[in-house]
Design a protein that fits this description.
The chain is α/β, with parallel strands linked by helices. It has helices at about 1-10, 20-25, 50-60, 65, 75-85, 95-105, 120-130, 150-155, 180-185, 240-250, 260-265, 270-295, 315-325, 345-360, and strands spanning about 40, 90-95, 115-120, 135-140, 160-165, 190-195, 215-220, 235-240, 300, 305-310, 325-330, 330, 340-345. Helices cover about 40% and strands about 15% of the residues. Helix 6 (about 95-105) runs parallel beside helix 7. It is globular and about 55 Å long. The mean pLDDT is about 95.
């Protein structure tokens, strides 16, 4: 008895994990040790949010404000006109991640098919696997990384319950237009189709314009990219009101904090700040591409605030050496062999990075 007891104490019996979770590969982005470096690895706003957002944080972060549970109705009514929708056609989400989780948990039963292009935003696959869905991947052509529209439409079947599309896509930076989105919607009337528009401001084309025409269309937006509010974790999910009502049935009633909502309301009011930042990124993207040309590096056309560059076998080493210069970039070799994704910062930031990259490549 004593030996058995000792053996039990050495080997605690943990609760059995669901088989779907056991099979999943964890998503572990390199989020630690980023302080004091130029962050060109997560496609964030590299200069920060609007000063008006900072003022809201300072003014609203009172003991009384923080002691009250979030209230969303009035805020949804205020922000809805900015997106051209009604209050009952949107719900606030804890970043885009929660929007994806809500889609999966609302529309997919275990064993049902979730269709997505690949490579794409890893949370798409992670969320689908968490509910034990059948994940079907439609791969981008390695040569061009253009959206595989024909393959996607051929892959849609009667058992397809959810289609996930990032537009523009991460990490390829490629995008599709509204006509192609409509072809997908028409080919899958039985499926929910989510268009994740995290990088919309750098592309300028939105599926929100199609919302009233397709009852199977959903669109997500985030405040983590161009708005510079990644630390606040807030986004929006849009669809026809009947769909949003179903989404809210599963959603936590308080999943987005009050400060994040207050900041989002202020952020959309400062469009001059956003336009100036986007214009700067467009110019900086040109500077980056010109610099890559001079270094003899191949890169893919970009419709976003990042560029995917081919470095071949040296990709991992280039990332490591740039880090020594305090520049962070993202190795995407796991998805597309030999590639690095570089976030576009300001022109000044891009020029200093290119100088360091030239030195690194000469080592």
């Amino acid at each position: 008895m004593t030996n058995n007891k000792a053996e039990t104490e050495k080997k605690p019996r943990y609760p059995r994990v669901r088989s779907a979770i056991e099979r999943m590969e964890p998503y572990t982005p390199p989020t630690d040790g980023r302080g004091g470096k130029l962050r060109l690895d997560f496609n964030e706003n590299t200069v920060g949010c609007s000063p008006r957002v900072v003022r809201v944080l300072r003014n609203r972060a009172t003991a009384q404000f923080l002691s009250v549970y979030p209230e969303y109705l009035a805020s949804r009514e205020k922000i809805a006109p900015f997106f051209g929708v009604q209050e009952d056609q949107l719900t606030f989400t804890d970043g885009t991640d929660e929007a994806i989780q809500l889609m999966v948990h609302t529309y997919v039963d275990p064993g049902q098919e979730v269709l997505m292009s690949w490579p794409t935003f890893p949370i798409f696959r992670l969320a689908a696997e968490s509910v034990d869905a059948k994940v079907s991947l439609v791969r981008y052509p390695q040569k061009t990384l253009s959206f595989p529209l024909k393959k996607m439409i051929r892959a849609i079947g009667a058992k397809t319950r959810l289609i996930l599309i990032a537009n523009p896509n991460n990490p390829t930076a490629s995008a599709i237009g509204l006509n192609d989105i409509e072809l997908i919607l028409q080919a899958a009337p039985q499926a929910a189709v989510l268009i994740d528009e995290a990088y919309f401001e750098f592309f300028g084309i939105t599926a929100l314009d199609l919302l009233t025409h397709y009852p199977n269309l959903f669109v997500s937006r985030t405040f983590s990219k161009v708005y510079g509010m990644a630390g606040l974790r807030i986004g929006c999910l849009f669809s026809q009101k009947e769909n949003i009502a179903m989404i809210r049935k599963f959603q936590s009633p308080y999943s987005v904090n009050s400060l994040a909502v207050a900041c989002a309301l202020e952020a959309v009011q400062d469009q001059k700040y956003i336009r100036n930042y986007v214009d700067e990124i467009f110019e900086a993207r040109k500077t980056l591409c010109e610099g890559l040309d001079q270094l003899g590096l191949f890169y893919y056309p970009s419709q976003a605030n990042f560029v995917l560059v081919r470095f071949g076998r040296r990709a991992a080493m280039i990332c490591k050496l740039l880090r020594e210069y305090n520049f962070l970039v993202r190795d995407r070799t796991k998805d597309i062999p030999g590639t690095i994704r570089i976030t576009v910062g300001t022109r000044r930031q891009v020029k200093t990075m290119l100088k360091a990259l030239g030195e690194v490549m000469g080592r």
